[in-house]
Write a structure and sequence with these properties.
The complex is a heterodimer. By secondary structure, chain A is an all-beta fold. In chain A, 0% of the residues lie in helices and 57% in strands. Chain A has no helices and eleven strands. In chain A, strands 2, 4, 5, 9, 10 and 11 form a six-stranded mixed beta sheet that branches. In chain A, strands 1-3-8-7-6 form a five-stranded antiparallel beta sheet, with no helix packed on it. In chain A, strand 6 and strand 7 form a beta hairpin. By secondary structure, chain B is mainly β. In chain B, strands 2, 4, 5, 6, 9, 10 and 11 form a seven-stranded mixed beta sheet that branches. Chain B starts with a strand and ends with a strand. The chains are: A mainly beta, B mainly beta. Chains A and B meet through strand 4, strand 5, strand 9 and strand 10 of A and strand 4, strand 5, strand 9 and strand 10 of B.
Chain lengths: 111, 115
């Protein structure tokens, strides 16, 4: 059974600081996704990572994938309040592309 | 930009009643999904649908649940006899081209409250 673990589950940080969220998964997967969810809202796709060593950046967020270690990271640079949200990683495996999610990281950026 | 839509946004029902949640996936996508998220918890897979039939379902998706694609656009989730523990946010998703590869796009969700 595929398991996805994120840490930390809660992250409170100050504006301007850097931090990294980690996502480990238990078995080989085909794709790794990062989503953002604002309270009461849907899941907004941030990144799709396919291959080992893949790195993608959008604004203050950068995601990377190490398939050998079964680890993805989401790095936040110089955090701003607008980044406050819950961030989920998810992996898919097999022909159905169904997603298995981590528990999410609730990020709070304080002024 | 194409998007997945869902109706209603919020559904309140009495325990034991039937509910139907509706979704319109992105038109050129072939795989469709239902996920649920109990308040404050992670998103859980319920069922996937491909080529007009269920391709995979989770343990959560028991006999009380069913899915249909009654026409070329709608994709529905029916819960026959709702229980209190069915209260959750239900997300529809479809899988298709995005960011240069297949990607899963989520609808805005239906918040189901069972009283």
């Amino acid at each position: 059974e595929l398991k996805v673990e994120q840490n930390p589950l809660f992250l409170s940080m100050q504006e301007g600081k850097n931090y990294t969220i980690y996502c480990n998964y238990s078995t080989t997967s085909d794709r790794l996704y990062w989503y953002r969810q604002d309270p009461g809202k849907s899941l907004e796709s941030l990144f799709v990572l396919l291959s080992n060593g893949a790195v993608k950046q959008e604004g203050r967020l950068m995601a990377s994938l190490d398939t050998k270690a079964r680890l993805s990271t989401l790095h936040i640079t110089a955090a701003v309040h607008d980044l406050s949200a819950t961030y989920f990683c998810a992996v898919d495996r097999g022909s159905n592309y169904k997603l298995t999610f981590g528990k999410g990281t609730l990020l709070t950026v304080n002024p | 930009e194409p998007e997945v839509t869902q109706t209603p946004s919020h559904q309140v029902t009495q325990m034991g009643q039937e509910v139907i949640l509706r979704c319109v996936p992105i038109s050129n996508h072939l795989y469709f999904y239902w996920y649920r998220q109990i308040l404050g918890q992670k998103v859980e897979f319920l069922v996937s649908f491909y080529n007009n039939e269920i391709s995979e379902k989770s343990e959560i998706f028991d006999d009380q649940f069913s899915v249909e694609r009654p026409d070329g656009s709608n994709f529905t989730l029916k819960i026959r006899s709702t229980k209190l523990e069915d209260s959750a946010m239900y997300f529809c998703a479809s899988n298709g081209p995005g960011q240069g590869m297949n990607e899963q796009f989520f609808g805005p969700g239906t918040r189901l409250t069972v009283l």
